[in-house]
Task: structure prediction
Amino acid sequence: MYVCVCNAITCRTVRKKVDEGAASVGGVFKAAGKKPQCGRCFPMVRSMIADHAPACAGHDDIDSGLAIAAE
Ligand code: FES
Result:
């Protein structure tokens, strides 16, 4: 599932970057080589960092599928 639609960052990527040590929204973007744009993904990224990324559990099967915009 896409967490950040602007940068096509998936939950898998966020989880990987958090596992590698990213501890902030900015850290996740930097580690992914992306720059924040609209900011709509920030709450989800923060939640994944706080929970150490289980927020997308069960959605790995659609990581490469259609973009799902957070409403
Ligand atoms: S959805 Fe992440 S910056 Fe826009």
Observations:
- The pocket of FE2/S2 (inorganic) cluster is lined by residues 4-7, 36-41 (CB under 6 Å).
- Residues 11-19 form the longest helix (9 residues).
